[in-house]
Amino acid sequence: MSRYREGLTLGEGPRWHDGALWVSDPQKGGIWTDNGGTWAFTPLAAQPNGLWFLPDGRLVGAIMREKRVGLWDGAGFGAYADLSGVAAGPLGDMVGDRHGGLYVDDVGYAAHLGEQPRPGRLIHVTPDGRATVAAEDVEFPNGLAIIGDGRTLVVAETWAQRLTAFTIGAGGALSDRRLFADLAAVVHPEARPDGICAAAHGVWVCTLSAHTVALVDESGLLDRIGTGDGQPVACCLDPAGRLFVTVAETGGRSVLEAVAARTLKTHVDVHEPGVRR
């Protein structure tokens, strides 16, 4: 992989849209993008985490502590969907379907603030902004991806070291919970998933302390990319198949420890398809 951009504290929810990369930085409190031709940061009072572009091109963000999804207006995230009635903890990643529905992580508790662990959940947001609980008892839900022509939702359960799949039904309902990939078995015993993204075949998953971005499907490991001393946090693909990965430099600490110590630094790397690793 080669260096694409620098300057982030923690890069989350990377999305490629209309020739530009967008990344949230919840620890620094804002959004990075090269949409204007140069890599620039917009500071915000809110802490955006997961990002997604709706079918009509509008950008929405999961606002961590405010328990809402906001609509980007160029300077901040305005009103879009209130999740306070169904979210118990901070909001994490977010993914959307072709109809404008969204799935959002409720991670259950603020691990970086030392809160006691408790199960998280997945929240479904309809195109008109109504929020309901789609799945309970998810073990620190993190990255999200929709695969299988829109029929399957995959979620990364960080502490369980696995990817879990659900069948998407009418109205966004989730059913048939099942194991998609046991990452400790197929990638590395220390593989703890964070961000993921859908690929043409399988799912790319960032595995933090395993220092690996792995391509997996239900049959096992398909490919892998090492990130050296850095810990891969989140990823996305552009239409040309380039893989963008936010990589955290932690100085040997875990990401949570580096966040607490305020020593975390993150950059964005890119892998070109067809380039040997």
Automatic annotation (TrEMBL):
InterPro entries: 6-blade_b-propeller_TolB-like (IPR011042), SGL (IPR013658), SMP-30/CGR1_Lactonase (IPR051262). Pfam families: SGL (PF08450). Residues 10-248 form the SMP-30/Gluconolactonase/LRE-like region domain. Gene3D superfamilies: TolB, C-terminal domain. This is SMP-30/gluconolactonase/LRE family protein.
